[in-house]
Every structure is written in C-alpha cells, then in structure tokens.
Amino acid sequence: MNFLRCTLVFALLLVAGRAVAVIETYEFSNPELELRYRQLSTELRCPKCQNQNIADSNAPIAQDLRKLLYQQLEQGASDEEILDYMVARYGEFVRYRPRFSGATAILWLAPALLLLVGLVVAFLTLRSRRGGSALAEQQLSTDEQRQLQTLLDKTEQDS
Fold first, then answer.
1. Residues 34, 28 contacting (CB under 8 angstroms)
2. Mean pLDDT computed over every residue of the chain
3. Distances (CA, A) of 119 to 19, 104, 115, 123, 157
C-alpha cells in the first residue's frame, strides 16, 4: 500500500512538471520559419536566467524575446539581422556562441592556450624525471666504489 502511494505521488510530480513547461503556439507561414525559430530560440540566452536559452525559460523577458523572434521571422528578417538586433539590444552575452572579436578572443583562445600550457608542463616534467634517473644510473668510479665499500664494512663492524 505504501509503495502504491509513493508511485502515485511520483507519477503526479512527473505530470506536474510537464504542466509548467513552456507552451507557446505560433502559426508560421511556412515550416522553414518554424525550424529557424526553434534553432534561433535555442541559440539565444535568456538575459534574466543566464543559464537557459529563451526556448526553455519561463521568464517574462524570454517570452517577450520569443514573441519578438517570431515577429521578426515573419517579417522576413535573416538570422544575422535577428542576432545583430538582439546583440545590439542585450549585448554579446545574449548569444551562447559569441562572435570572435577582441572582447571575446579570450573565450575562444583560452581552451587552446590552457591545452598548450598543460602540454609544455607535462613535457618539462617528464624531461626532468628522465634526466634525474640518468644520474642515478651512472657508474661509480673505482675510488667511489672503494669508499662505499669501506663505509659499508665499517657499518657492519659497528653493528
């Protein structure tokens, strides 16, 4: 009986999650515009939520941006024109994939630079280890062998 209740509560929670999801219906003049709408709405970041695109966000600003996106698509604006308008109004942050420019160069180049630094550090670390082991493998001279043997003999006699 308790298991049945838990299952029922879990099922209701799943259904309730669907009820809160973003549901908007726009009538597009052709299917190509609907595909562009879906693609652009996942590419634009919600200015309020910051970690959600406007397609997934329930924030009022995201609803406004989806409506604006629909209107611009129906008016015949290109994807670049729409993105330029959004960037002009909300800044480069509104794009999940910002353009390459002086301001965003660090975003695009940082992964490659970090990889390069990691490779250099790994190379230098391995090289220094190899150099240290070469010193350990060097042969002792006959004088050094004699001194070592004398020390070992002295240690044995003391114990």
1. yes
2. 81
3. 50, 24, 6, 6, 52
Burial 78-110 (b: 16+ CB within 10 A, else e): eeeebbeebbeebeeebbeebeeeeeeeeeeee
Cβ atoms of 49 and 62 within 8 Å: the answer is yes
| Chain mean position to CA 71 | 32
First to last CA, the chain: 78
State pLDDT tens for residues 43-95: 898 888 878 889 888 889 889 999 999 999 999 999 999 999 998 998 888 88
- Calculate the CA 88 to chain-centre distance: 25
pLDDT tens per residue, range 34-48 = 899 999 998 898 888
**Domains of the chain, CATH where assigned:** 2-94 (1.10.8.640), 105-158 (no CATH)
